[in-house]
Inverse folding.
């Protein structure tokens, strides 16, 4: 996808993906039940705005036949405080699978506070039937950040967060993320080879791995026994959607990724994700529909 993409060229590319997806599936029917995260609809922890956008996101995700949804744990708490979360799920017959939780890892003096906050969010995830906490490392200033300086704090912090969540019976995984203290391929490999993987698993974002210069499918293969959750995201490098795009329109070897997780025996949660952006050339519903068509081509089935 070109960095000079217009609404017309984006739509033309999307039409090509949909046309290809109309062909019969090339392989056997897949078994994983795929969900969707809510950020494409602009659902971020921003007070009243998040209250409104989550409702639209859940309605659209359910309408397309995805099996579950994920959102920020703070937003679950906001909807709980409004007394609306259960009704939202019931009205759309769509379960919450996971909650996204920010952490503080580089500053050891704030670790206790961070763990307590994540455990409180974990209990909120559990209250609404969710089974997984996605742990995002804290943001850092890229030009001045030195991973080696903070490495010990990061590993100890991840272990503490993971063990605390295990104490309440909630699974969790590291979600490497652009602009955070665990982003690059080498950082991911070092962390996953160093943490206590009895408690902390891997919840990769394959689009962000690709954006960071890694071969996303290879990273998934190398840590496949730890992959319990995934943001299935494609990356094109275009100017919209922070460089991401609907599935099948970018550079990530998604077919290989799906083959790996289907055959790996771990049966991870798979959540499609695409970032939102200003003046995006297609609506969230249109983008999600293209991603669904791609998955149908791969043999995935959706709810009626």
């Amino acid at each position: 996808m070109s960095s000079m993409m217009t609404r017309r060229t984006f739509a033309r590319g999307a039409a090509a993906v949909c046309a290809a997806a109309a062909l019969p599936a090339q392989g056997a029917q897949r078994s994983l039940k795929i969900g969707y995260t809510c950020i494409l609809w602009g659902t971020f922890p921003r007070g009243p705005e998040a209250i409104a956008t989550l409702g639209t996101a859940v309605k659209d995700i359910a309408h397309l036949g995805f099996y579950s949804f994920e959102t920020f744990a703070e937003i679950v708490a906001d909807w709980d405080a409004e007394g609306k979360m259960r009704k939202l799920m019931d009205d759309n017959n769509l379960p919450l699978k996971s909650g996204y939780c920010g952490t503080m890892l580089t500053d050891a003096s704030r670790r206790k506070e961070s763990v307590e906050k994540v455990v409180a969010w974990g209990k909120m995830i559990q209250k609404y039937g969710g089974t997984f906490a996605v742990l995002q490392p804290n943001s850092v200033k890229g030009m001045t950040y030195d991973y080696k300086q903070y490495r010990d704090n990061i590993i100890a912090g991840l272990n503490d967060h993971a063990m605390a969540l295990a104490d309440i019976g909630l699974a969790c995984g590291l979600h490497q993320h652009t602009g955070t203290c665990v982003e690059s391929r080498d950082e991911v490999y070092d962390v996953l080879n160093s943490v206590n993987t009895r408690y902390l698993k891997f919840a990769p974002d394959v689009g962000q791995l690709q954006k960071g210069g890694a071969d996303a499918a290879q990273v998934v293969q190398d840590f496949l026994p730890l992959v319990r959750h995934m943001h299935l995201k494609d990356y094109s490098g275009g100017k919209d959607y922070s460089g991401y795009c609907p599935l099948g329109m970018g550079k990530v070897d998604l077919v290989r990724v799906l083959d790996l997780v289907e055959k790996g025996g771990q049966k991870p949660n798979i959540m499609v994700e695409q970032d939102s952006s200003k003046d995006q050339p297609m609506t969230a519903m249109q983008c999600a529909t293209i991603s669904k068509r791609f998955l149908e081509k791969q043999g995935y089935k959706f709810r009626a």
About this structure: The chain has eleven helices and ten strands. Residues 207 and 234 are 5 Å apart (CA to CA). Confidence is low (pLDDT under 50) at residues 1-10, 18-27. The domain at 31-297 is CATH 3.20.20.150 (TIM Barrel).
